[in-house]
């Protein structure tokens, strides 16, 4: 039984990091004329009203996208990210926040020359219904499935176009998600070694959360980038998330520089205490870059 609803967390610091990286990776995919398939294994509801009960109850977006909204000194990649959210929000006031499906749908291409495809998976019946409603007129290049994203991934790879981007963004409310992510990534690399894989992970004071990045580093990829953004000191009590990370396999060559430009800014802008910080770590077979 799934109880996690992303509506409580939409637009928080973790979404800022995740959606910035997603946008940068899609933009890079768009720099070539060949079509690609984007699979979002854990899509969520797709769009979130920030004045709805769930978002208001936690107010997490206020300390995430809310802190970037009025800034005039954003580094260029963050200007593009906030502009994207602003366009999808549809108003000068921050009222709605787009989830990964809406961000992806707005960036993939549908021209006479190139038609990219987007495959969205969501298991929760309520969020699936919301997602399906949003994309009901989207046509065949965007599909919405009420399905286990880990299972769909097996069938989806390799994509017919042999170009692919995969976002794996579980809530980790079930501990087995940590293990499933590693198994899914290993299997995906066997099926489609050249795909770009984006795995979001929480920074939490638990063994599973701490071990996940190390396990992903050993999953068999010859090139990866690991970026983290923390907004406060790790919790000593309870299970509060103090930050999150994006583990990117086969990252665009432009990603590290863009994140090194944005993450110091984000760590300062979204800080909740003086322990906020960031990191970008990269590995490419034959070289080690920090
Ligand atoms: N990717 C979304 C975004 O960035 O806007 C947020 C996704 S949220 C963190 C995780 C979602 O995965 C939840 O809506 C949850 O219902 C869904 N979920 C959980 N297990 C799943 C599974 N095995 N397959 C597909 N969806 C799942």
From TrEMBL:
Family under the similarity heading: Belongs to the RlmJ family.
Assembly and binders: Monomer.
Site note Interaction with substrate rRNA, residues: 4
Known EC number: 2.1.1.266
Name of the protein described by the UniProt record: Ribosomal RNA large subunit methyltransferase J
HAMAP family: 23SrRNA_methyltr_J (MF_00934)
Highest rank taxon of the organism: Bacteria
GO biological process, one term: rRNA base methylation
Catalytic residues (UniProt): 169
Alphabetic keyword roster: Methyltransferase, RNA-binding, rRNA processing, S-adenosyl-L-methionine, Transferase
Alphabetical list of Pfam families matching this protein: RsmJ (PF04378)
Reactions it catalyzes: adenosine(2030) in 23S rRNA + S-adenosyl-L-methionine = N(6)-methyladenosine(2030) in 23S rRNA + S-adenosyl-L-homocysteine + H(+)
Residue sites binding S-adenosyl-L-methionine per the record: 19, 42, 100, 122, 148-149, 169
GO MF annotations, alphabetized: 23S rRNA (adenine(2030)-N(6))-methyltransferase activity; RNA binding
Stated role: Specifically methylates the adenine in position 2030 of 23S rRNA.
GO cellular component terms attached to this protein's record: cytosol
InterPro entries named in the record: RlmJ, SAM-dependent_MTases_sf
